[in-house]
């Protein structure tokens, strides 16, 4: 069944998809979720598009998870994703009651035309409306998009390190996805509360006016009757035009006149300057919430592309670009073992022709299409140069930044020759660390760096674990934290 495009994505569905994406990227070798299951799920939903494809694929894969990961998947969609539904009603009722009880027309039956209960409320609402219009379509600062602690409903810890790491990443990404939607809902609730507060004030005035005879007057040290009359005509003029109720004559200072027409005009002014603007702002925040809900699925485009590649049977290929010397067979075998521990056994390793010193520009010009996985292999024994080695890596970074799917990248320094030079020397470890530091200073932190020494050859799994940052694609293309 096709997804209903007219509704917002179900938050539980989005959360489950975030969990599945985090799990697949944390399990590139298919130990928790076999590659055959992933390929079958991708093939089953190959006719879907966009988030519908991701959602349907997640529903296919979820039941295949076993153990702690399966239990975590079953519970991740049940975590509350927003505040309780009764909170909206409670805030509206509380605001109405606050307006009803806090604004009295006066215990002595006299109403001041210059200090009318609704005057301050109208001024405040107009200021809020102006601020809302000035900040329309402006993204709030990033620190405002962090959910408050009481809204961070974290999943329970399972005790399984792998599953707990996936849950932690899911929660982190969920906050990024959900915060704009909750902010829009919060603004909507704020506008509803302001509207109900004004409604409570108006309702309270009319309720009190039914049982008491109120009179209107004014007092001022600085104003005169003509200036007060002009002021009331300006403030209440729009309401007079809409309702047809003329603005009454202002009595002399200290004098009184019936308060009913004044109450009618102030209530109509509240409708014009509070009710109408707030309804427009509520409509705007509803559209903002809908847009936030729709854009919450845009981050899955890369995930969808990767899933479609699996469905089409396209293998994942890691390109190895050697520089200043072609690797021999033992080095190729060692590097292949490390990369398959790092990115999974499904990754095929393809060694490109060796790049000679000074051929960087020609190499970059020849690489037209960015790969999904790229390894830059260079000898640790040579002295790195920023205008050669650094320039090559920066050029490859620009190439990878154009990839449709966030790529994986790794710099490998072959230590075979350098270790042979230092064999038996007591300062070997220090010299190795110094040489690594020189390379790191030249290349910078953009790519993870692996020294392929004798220890890495003996234990490729440990070597892969030492560059765990390379297991995460850059999204967007930035240096790994």
In whole angstroms, the N-to-C terminal distance is 41 Å
* Count of spatially separate domains: 2
Indicate the overall shape: elongated
What Rg do the Cα atoms give?
Answer: 34 Å
Q: Poorly predicted ranges (pLDDT <50, ≥5 residues)? A: 1-6, 476-481
Strand content: 5-15%
Report the biggest beta sheet as strand number plus sense, adding barrel if it closes: 5 strands, parallel
Instruction: Give the number of DSSP strands.
Output: 8
Helix content: 55-70%
Q: How do the strands of the widest beta sheet line up side by side?
A: 5-4-6-7-8
Average the pLDDT over all residues and give the rounded result. Answer: 82
Oligomer: single chain
The H/E string reads HHHHHEHHEHEHHEHEHEHEHHEHH
Helix run count: 17
Give the key terms.
481 residues, alpha/beta, Rossmann fold, 2 domains, five-stranded parallel sheet, three-stranded mixed sheet, 8 strands, elongated, disordered C terminus
Task: Outline the structure in words.
- There is one protein chain.
- By secondary structure, the protein is α/β, with parallel strands linked by helices.
- It folds into 2 domains: 1-314, no CATH class; 315-471, 3-Layer(aba) Sandwich (Rossmann fold), CATH 3.40.50.
- Helices cover 57% and strands 8% of the residues.
- It has 17 helices and 8 strands.
- The protein has a 5-stranded parallel beta sheet with strand order 5-4-6-7-8. A 3-stranded mixed beta sheet has the order 1-2-3, with helices on one face.
- It starts with 10 loop residues before the first helix and ends in a 15-residue tail after the last helix.
